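Thought: the user asked what 2-isopropylmalate synthase looks like in 3D. I have the sequence; next I should run the structure tool and report back without guessing.
Action: structure_tool
Action Input:
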Amino acid sequence: MSNRVYIFDTTLRDGEQSPGVSLNINEKLQIARQLARLGVDIIEAGFPITSPGDFAAVQAVAREVRGVTVAGLARANFKDIDGAWEAVRDAEQARIHTFIATSDIHLKYKLRKDREQVIEAAVAAVKHAKKYTSDVEFSAEDASRSDVDYLARVFGEVIKAGATVINVPDTVGYSTPEEFGLFIKAIMEKTPGIEKAVVSVHCHDDLGLAVANSLAAIGYGVRQVEGTINGIGERAGNAALEEVVMGLYTRKDRYGLTTGFNTKEIYRTSRLVSSLTGMPVQPNKAVVGKNAFAHESGIHQDGVLKERTTYEIMNPEMVGIAASNLVLGKHSGRHAFRDRLSELGYELSDEELNLAFARFKALADKKKEIADQDIQAIVEDEIRHIPETYLLEYLHISSGSTVVPTATLGLRKGEELKEEAACGDGPVDAIYKTVDKITGLQCVLVNYAINAITGGKDALGDVTVKLKCQENEKIYIGRGVSTDILEASAKAYVNAVNKLIFDHQPKN
Ligand code: KIV
Ligand code: ZN
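Observation:
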């Protein structure tokens, strides 16, 4: 059996199904490019039949991102499969991923089909997909709650029909590691022709066991793991791929397996996904959390200073968290700034570098020492990947315990400077009402979150907002960074508004 585990990333499909997450095509492309740099083997770019936007995003990823397999999801029917193929056909390597549920509970209440009808639909779907591509994955939705003998029959039939990957999802995150491992063992033993397919797992995290279940399954011969960056996804999310991969890497002694991951790209990928989805990473999150490598207790600090491995089983550089000795400040020049950016993995065009450097200089006037996280935040804030219809030109706020909060704002739209003022319940509310007056758009603020990038009174404030468009009910996420939290709040709102406008523009 091969000692290579294939990593199937579904951040753009199952991850995007996280409540309140919606990515536009440019954001999906940005994430897909970074996933390719990270070294995932397969990118599930979306579920093309669900909307024209999803179709266009899958097609764009298939056409542009090289060095990976691009998969499109399809239910087990011809219309979905035709749509998925149209979307992925231009990929370097295209995969159709088709699925149907196999548990009695799904058959009875959701599909209203009997077991034989499900086998028929699954086989027909795989045969139809096979006309388009040799690379066909079949998933048995809710597999972990299915009767194992029936499941083995389904898998045997779809392998006969041409499926090259069979996937065992723990769709509702119900399994436990010992149980799931033995379930995989039974499938391996009972499925006719299993040696012709790669066996895959897809675990959800409802009981917090998705990574443990995935690793247990690998122990029984699974060679493809599906999951997402930061573990985002439906409900409690999916298996966090960075945790699965670092588990295999750190415990090579136990598993003896490899992946194609460039682990040094993990942190950057995690930040990008968090920033574009507006889903913060909890500080104590394994591998990528802010505290994952922080040693607080004196005994631990002493141990790490004497010998790192006393309390560190992975080192931060391994996952791309730079241990920089170089602190940048107001005397640092363009050259040092550019070097630091490239160490952090950013390749900017000259124009982008100019913008980022100007922001860096402005920040250095306010903040004595600029940390790597500050640099990452200003670059991500400055380099927007959608047209900026409105740009914040100036902001004036009057607020206090005895006055009505009032905002006056200037937003540039092309050549024109549009100015307005409004009162609100607080200064942020006043700013947002003023932006609405200028743009004439009806948006509902559904979420506002503020975070300090580093410690200290001069820390950058990082604001994320989620707006709901009244017209199509879609959520738009905006982000703004500034040492002035009201300015960061305004920028975040304007960023979300620009995304909404971009989404409504006709695309050719
Ligand atoms: O959780 C699940 O069962 C899925 C399938 C479509 C693979 O996401
Ligand atoms: Zn899923």
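Thought: the tool returned a structure. Summarizing for the user.
Final Answer: Structure for 2-isopropylmalate synthase predicted. Residues 14, 169, 171, 202, 204, 234 surround zinc ion (ligand 2) (CB under 6 Å). The mean pLDDT is 93.
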